[in-house]
């Protein structure tokens, strides 16, 4: 039931603090057993990770690459399942194949997994929201995200819980390989703050409603982010496209000058994900590039100097501070809300957007 919400998507956005909290619990303090690997030997011998997924699940994989390489110091490739399955790639039997899927029934993801197995890559892990799914049956090990049933076609709580599962995987591998720079308890405490931060983000709905009014009149938009916030920009743009039918393009901020800057004029909303982290100075200069061309800026930040410089065409929402590694979780939620509210203003069928299915079981 909708429990007072207007749409399932809205309900599922608001369920994220508890879905994320339940998924953090399921990490069991970063124990390999949480992923179904009883022998730590398994993680000791792996030297590479290949992530395969589609759509939103692919974007959680892109965030995971930042974590797996930074925290576990293991090479990580992320591939779109429909590309990987038909591509001649170089197999590596020491590689762990991680298939990410909300439904566990996505045809391309299942086929990509089979393709990897046919090439001799036997070690496989599913990050999946449905315990009884084909994907879980076909993988050696699995972690079930605790999002609960997701009904809205546009994925929300499945994404943030996948992020938790993948962050946990990076920490778990780093621990087994003796590469952790802090204690597991410390890392867990920091991670455990995320549910309350997500609640705080959800309380900014009023400001996001103002942005949504502007977005609902746009035909196009650009979303920018750097580092792990680049895939968050991709995911935010996908949400807007799917349910509001407004074209949105996610871009790594540093690529702005290499093409999309040509699109910027006073009509174009440019959304920038700009937390005060090690890349903030770079992002500030990207903001200036847009400002100089009179683009309409919408900035999510916790940086004081950006907050102070907001003007009529430079809209800013202040988000809570968190550790740099966990920013993807905090900055995803306002983008989901923005897409959701924009779509409701446009009056689209939010839970069942045109031409889309919840689970893509055919190619
Ligand atoms: C986006 C969306 C799709 C799915 C994709 C993969 O909101 O819902 O892009 O993420 O079809 O689905 P799963 O995760 O079930 O494999």
Automatic annotation (TrEMBL):
Q: Where are the transmembrane segments?
A: none
Where is this protein localized, as stated in its record? Cytoplasm
Q: Which UniProt keywords apply?
A: Aminotransferase, Cytoplasm, Glutamine amidotransferase, Repeat, Transferase
List the GO terms this entry assigns under cellular component, sorted alphabetically: cytosol
Coiled-coil parts of chain: none
Provide the catalytic activity annotation: D-fructose 6-phosphate + L-glutamine = D-glucosamine 6-phosphate + L-glutamate
Q: What is its EC number?
A: 2.6.1.16
Protein's UniProt name: Glutamine--fructose-6-phosphate aminotransferase [isomerizing]
UniProt organism field: Parasutterella muris
Q: Which gene encodes it?
A: glmS
